[in-house]
Amino acid sequence: MKILSVRHVALPALLLPLIAAAQAADEQTMVVTAAPTTVSELDTPAAVSVVNGDEMRQAAPRVNLSESLGAVPGLQVQNRQNYAQDLQLSIRGFGSRSTYGVRGLRIYVDGIPATMPDGQGQTSNIDIGSVDTIEVLRGPFSALYGNSSGGVINVTSQTGTQPPTVEASSYYSSFGTWHYGMKATGAVGDGSHAGDVDYTVSTNRFTTHGYRDHSGARKNLANARLGVRINDVSKLTLLLNSVDIKANDAGGLTADEWRDNPRQSPRGDQYNTRKNTRQTQAGLRYERQLSAQDDLSVMMYAGERETTQFQSIPRAPQLKPSHAGGVIDLTRHYQGIDTRLTHRGELLVPVTLTAGLDYENMSERRKGYENFVMVNGAPQYGEQGALRRNERNLMWNVDPYLQTQWQLTDKLSLDAGFATARYGSTRTTTTSPQAMAMTAVMPAITNGCPRAR
């Protein structure tokens, strides 16, 4: 998929017929892959925005998604300016109450969920240097993707093509901020014959001393995609991703502290607050055209995420029997499989049927320690102390889903979907039916009436 550009412009309604006529003369079709099937943006029942990867890389440091997603309608990206804390994303208000991570939204990176079964998502493993497109789906039809009430963010990496290319980039700014990376892409064959191969390999490093005291950070990120054409009707794609982050946490300031010196970090220096994160994951996608009307897609993935965080919690609260301590030591192992079958046929009218089953599970080992050790009768903060918490958590999701589209006339279509999710140790089950009728007012204008629960 190649998308040249995406622009959102507000113009008077009287100009719409002229715009439609101009677009008919020079039409560019945007293809949406974040939907259950690959469709045009005019045919999907969700509100969709697509950001092109080349445009993201033209005039930005390539460090945070906030550099390029801030202009997407309905999407708010809150950059905390603290690399020990991830970005806060919200779509139409969903996710705005999250104090850490991303909640209420579903994030995918090359088909692998960046949202864990407990609903918490991360954006730290997204490599802007190799992004092809980022698609943002808003609206009720995003419920087909599981526990995401607000929407879906789908990130797709570049697919290598001929001729081979090697790209190097570097960005330098104040406070010791430096980002540099390399990317190699290429292909053997045109991708349509058995044995054809395409590849994309990207790696980059980011370092900064930070504007405030005790706010330095370092991030290493690598992303790889390898596709192999097995035969004329099937393809296998291998996906690899790894990120390693070490960041100091400057913490907050009182009003008086900020007026005195906004760059200071008194509690960061006292408690040596910091966060280390390491994540490695791998995925394997198998795609096969069973017939002229049927397609099969199977996605398998597994990964591990380790997080250690030192917080600015005084000694006294940690001495309470129920307190978990001032150090978080978290290890998560996650894996899953998504199987999807698409059929295109006729039942009085042309109809497209998509049915699938998504299963994912996560095993979490969570420990808590005191953030101090006693030296000569006084606490020395910033050191891992006594164990205060030791627990193991298991989480799983089973999400069968079904979506159909009837093309009733040349200008009228009806979409209907149904998804159910069963998750957690309490065997909680939720259902999400949706329906939408769409009519084409003009070739470039559609009108829809959605209904979802």
Residue fraction in strands: over 45%
The name of the CATH topology is: Maltoporin, Chain A
Categorize the overall geometry.
globular
Overall pLDDT, averaged?
81
Major sheet: size, sense and barrel closure? 13 strands, antiparallel
What is the spatial order of strands in the main beta sheet?
Answer: 10-11-12-13-14-15-16-17-18-21-22-23-24
Number of distinct beta strands: 24
Give me the CATH superfamily: TonB-dependent receptor, beta-barrel domain
Percent helix: under 10%
What is the number of independent domains?
1
Topology of this protein?
Elements: H1 16-25, E1 31-32, E2 39-40, E3 47-52, H2 53-58, H3 66-69, E4 75-78, E5 88-91, E6 105-109, E7 112-113, E8 131-138, E9 151-157, E10 165-173, E11 177-188, E12 197-208, E13 217-231, E14 234-248, H4 255-260, H5 266-271, E15 274-289, E16 294-310, H6 315-318, E17 327-347, E18 349-369, E19 372-375, E20 378-381, E21 387-407, E22 412-423, E23 428-442, E24 445-452
